[in-house]
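Two proteins were folded this term; both appear here.
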Amino acid sequence: MKEQPTPDTDVVIVGGGFAGVAAARDLSRSGARVVLLEARDRLGGRTWFRESPLGRPLELGGTFVHWLQPHVWAEMTAAGLELEPSPGVEEIYWLAGGEVHRAGMEEYTRHVVPGMDGLTGLAREAFPQPHRPLPLTELAREADRTPLTRRLEQLGLTPEETEVARSRWTLSFNGSPDEGSWAQALRLAALCGGDWRMMSEANRAYTVAGGTGRLLEAVHRGSTADVRLGVTVTAVHHDAHGVEVVCADGSRITARHVVLTLPLNILDAIDVHPPLSPGKQAAGERGQVSSGVKVWMRARGRIRPFIAFASDDYPLTMAGTEYEQDGDTILLAFGPHSAKLDVTDVHAVQAAVRQWRPEIEITAVDAHDWTADPLSGETWFMARPGHLEHALAELQRPEGRVRLAGGDYASGWAGYIDGALESGRRAAREISTALEKEKETS
């Protein structure tokens, strides 16, 4: 690309999820001109709070937040947003040895503790500063190279304890725990002070009162970015002087810098010229673990509050009660393999729920398959072995005037809304600094 002395804008941000919106706001505050391009007809990325045919608004994507997540909590505090607690649980079902087990929380916890303690007990030693995981400690490097289930096999657990632990991490990975890194478990626990119980709470216990859309609006407030929805970017050309962003409709935008908020699994969806580094390309080709689904269901009648777990051998790895709705019950479930469950098929979802509760009648379902969505290709980020040692620093490194941002590239809560905010704000800070230096030398 030839030098563009007067680019159309200072920064183009590709993608309007939390990372893109946060970056656009911070850059706007610094005085930069920003164009934000989003291929969908809405902002929010892999979060999506909307009205549901099940009778009430529901979160189709990322949902859970916690005060342990510093970027989320700062935004919620500034905006005066409140937490909404998830419903309680009166009984737990789990599949082990091909049989359904049912108990109260106390008995179930006895089966959970050995595996969770064994997998997370070294969290603070491995990641003493979990928001700055690099450079890796020797223990973190070892854990990063070790598949989670290999570490699980080393713990000497009973078969039932092993299967219970596997089911919990199937839910966390939203995919097969065989493909995930032991470091992922340690890293998440370290973010919660080394306490896996708090980690479980952060993953499930609270949502944004009124929906994640309210949090997105709070982050977007104050942004002066030119937001353009329904615009698909196909290519980015960059050199020492600037960038040119090419859109599917043939339009082109020149800028000084560009931020790409593509999830790792679709990092190759935009042609970048010159290409991204071999390290970034290799990380994109390897991708990350999550390949599952999230599905809401309406069940006939009122159902006693429960939660159920299963390993990745089953189409659903977790299901539980969430809301009462006009005499019926709204259930939430997750499955580890998108290709193995059609979340739009009531009968298929019904059969999956009956693996625990054959008496429950599902009358309607609502879901968005993020793994099959070409604009996401995954649900939430979960690391494969070797990711921290070989990929994270490279993915965070600017490629000239091209930067990656998003929850997949966070140092702290990678795969969470908090990680997206962290990554987007880091990109904005770095670009603001670069723009200031460019002004000084122009």
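Next, the second protein.
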Amino acid sequence: MRPVSVIVVSHGRETALKRCLKALRQLSYPNLELVVVADRRSLAALQGLPQAMGIKTAPCDAENISLARNLGLGLAAGEVVAFVDDDAVPEPTWLTHLAAAFDDEEVAAAGGYVRGRNGISWQWRAAWVDGCGERHDLSLPGVRPVVLHPKPGRAIKTEGTNMAFRREVIAGIGGFDPAFRFFLDETDVNLRLARAGHATAIVPLAEVHHGFAESARRRTDRVPRDLFEIGASHAAFLLRHCPERERAAQQVRFAEEQRRRLLRHMVAGRLEPRDVRRLMARLAAGFAEGADRAPTPLPALPHAAAPFAALPPRPALRPKVTCGRWWHRARLRHQAAHDVAAGHVATALIFSLTAAYGRVSFTPAGVWEHSGGQFGKSERSGRFFTLRSLRRKCDAEITRIRRVRGLGPHA
């Protein structure tokens, strides 16, 4: 298998980073190196942890995701480089599916699907983006990878928390533009790759769960704390990709979108009117700042200074599933944690006698825990209530996740 580097950028989220690295250690892909670019406090918190052994690291205290990703590219020596956010966890087969897309020589980039905070609902699937930064959904049949070619003024969208590139290609275009300190950074890369005529693969079975962790820019409930960098990045993006005659209208449209978002939070009681005024003022200040971030040439990034540092070989991780009722959860969780320690990828199915909707989480112990009601639905498009035994509920859930969790026919 081709060597792949996985890059994680983190700032001030030590707990989320540890959890992400624990999930990355459960990947089924054998020829892998891990690269972490983080603030010094986060890197210090990783010292001595089993999931941090053997990784490449680089300090970056600046809150600039593009700069940090370029530092990661400077360390990454894989033929393919993949990115996942620190507040995300990939399914065990994520990289196996994503890397396989590069067997097609015309593929320069690949992206997978992203599930949201409840572990079930889709946060992002296939889409394309235009030069004004507007996202447009794509409807793709089935779960097989699809290779897509860009059209003039359009690009195939990859999400920053679930994307991969041929290293020589992304390094050749100068990596990520540091003008995008946060927001639209990968979209800018998508459009630059499209301009060069590169194809992108969409890989539905390459799944990542994304949690939207708290940061300096948003609270745990996803309410914005500051919109300055979003405004600055949007203005910088329009300078690079949007026709000049359309920029003013697009900026007004974007500001109105942000205002409606803030008003929804206000109606729900999560913001006060003065918060809305402050945040909109910060957005306007960001627009002004971003308008001064004029496009500059991005020199090609050099080859990695250090050779590929594959994680040490180990016995293949074996998937194992436990299933039971909610009142036995303590025993089931203990058993699943024991399975992780013994070298399994552990899935714990813990259901109540209700029709509660399903949820999936990756626990600090490294267990994939599925919860909800025995009679409830997992995928939100399913039936509200299904009368069935616990065994049938567990079988249905195993069937649903079999290909992404790496479960065999007799799990």
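DSSP finds eleven helices and 17 strands in the chain. The first strand starts at residue 4 and ends at 10. These notes refer to the second protein only.
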